Each structure stands twice: as C-alpha cells, then as structure tokens.
UniProtKB/TrEMBL annotation:
UniProt KW keywords: Signal
Cleaved signal peptide residues: 1-16
UniProt protein name: DUF19 domain-containing protein
Amino acid sequence: MRSLLSLLLLATVAHSAILQPYSLTDDLIQLMSFREQPSNAAFTVCQDIQFQYCQAQFNQFFGMDDMVSWRNGSYIFQTVQNYLMMNVTELVKVCNQRTQFYQCLGASYYSCMNLYTLLNKPQPDFSDTFDYVRTFRGLEGMCVGGFSEVVAQWDCLGTFPTTNAYQNCINNFNQTVAANNFCPAVQQTGVCLNDAYNAACGGPAAGYFGCEMFRITFDNSCWGLRCMVDTY
Ligand SMILES: *[C@@H]1O[C@H](CO)[C@@H](O)[C@H](O)[C@H]1NC(C)=O
Ligand SMILES: *[C@@H]1O[C@H](CO)[C@@H](O)[C@H](O)[C@H]1NC(C)=O
Ligand SMILES: *[C@@H]1O[C@H](CO)[C@@H](O)[C@H](O)[C@H]1NC(C)=O
C-alpha cells in the first residue's frame, strides 16, 4: 500500500519550471540536427578554445566546474532551471550571465549553439546535447523577448508546467511528432501552450510567452513558424 502510494506520488510530482521540461527521442534529435545543418559556406566556425573559455565564465556564476560543457547539457539545464526558480532577483542575474556568454562568443554564438555542429563532434550524447542547446534558446526567449512578462508573472509562469494542462500539450506533442510532420507538430503544440498559459496566467502576453518558449528551441529546424499574440 505504502509503496503503491509513493509510486503514485512519484508519477504525479512535477517541478516548477520556466524552461519547459520535456524530452525527445534520439531519432527526433537527430532529425532536428539535420534540419539545422548550416547551408551558408560563410557560416562562422565554433572555436573550441573560445567556446570552453566562455562556458567556464558562465559556469562560475552557478558554481559549476570549469570543465562542465555542452556534454553535460542535462546538468546545465537543471542547474540553470534551479536558479531561475529561486526568485526574480536570481532570474535577472541569470539573464545577465546569458548576455555575457552571448557577447563572449560573439559571431560564433549561433554556430556553437547548433545541434548539427555539436552532434558532429566525437561521441556526443543526444539528450545532453539537446538539453544544452535548449537551455540557451530558452534563455534567449526568456531574457530577450519574454523578459518583462517573466518578471511580471514569474510565479504563475514558473508553476504552470506542474499542471495537467501543460502536460496535456506535451503528451499530445509526444504522441503526434514524427519525421513527416515535425514542424506541424511544433506549431500545434505552440498553439496548445498559448491557450493553456493564457487560461492559467491571463493576458495575451502569457500565451505568447508559453508558445515562444517552446517554439524558439525549434527556430533553426522549423523556419518561419511564429507565435501569435491573441487580440481580443
Ligand atoms: C515522450 O516519449 C518518449 C518515448 O517516445 C519518452 O521517452 C519521453 O519521456 C516522453 N516525454 C514526455 C515529456 O512525456
Ligand atoms: C560532464 O561530462 C563528462 C563527459 O561525459 C563527464 O566525464 C563528467 O563527469 C561530467 N561532469 C558532470 C559534473 O556531470
Ligand atoms: C533569492 O534567492 C537567493 C537564493 O536562495 C537568496 O539568497 C536571496 O536572498 C533571494 N532574494 C530575494 C529578493 O528574495
């Protein structure tokens, strides 16, 4: 009885999250990576030494070891998430760290934050690599376009991913996403999240935030998708 109860608890416990929690299979991560393959010959190369240096600077704020890298993406995702969920003051500091990291990488930022580039390095782990790029894409969505919204509604936006309404959108994504309808599934999930965040937190800005935090991870694999701001 007791173990059944704790099993049920385990199954329903979900944590507060500004960066949306979900996972993709290795097959889908690989598909995304091919879709992110840079086509431009002038694409800036991600320089290993600069990449490591900037990462180590970023890590210091979070108390992560200098050697922690994109290969530890799931650990970085969780560590950044924990800071975002402390309070708004810490969230603002994380955004400042993100700006410094972005400036540190300069012209190579987007080639370093690219699934195709990273997965072509020796022996990558797919979910670590995916968690790595979506951490920084999520921070971009939150700290650039979504900043005033997240500061105003930090509590509601952070708690929302613990609800069934959030989980329904994600489960639906999980069940529908496939190689032959990848971007339509992303688009549909963005709409689902838009409506769900709107209903829970109120105001068109919350819906846009929920949609955009999801969509931005797929910005390079699904060109041209947009989140709409509802007008009443
Ligand atoms: C989505 O489905 C995959 C298996 O297809 C599973 O490993 C993963 O945990 C699921 N993610 C969520 C958030 O349910
Ligand atoms: C980071 O990843 C490397 C390579 O997979 C591993 O050896 C190391 O233990 C990881 N560090 C942490 C803190 O998880
Ligand atoms: C925010 O959280 C940090 C870490 O828990 C704490 O040290 C700080 O006092 C908190 N700040 C505010 C304004 O609550």
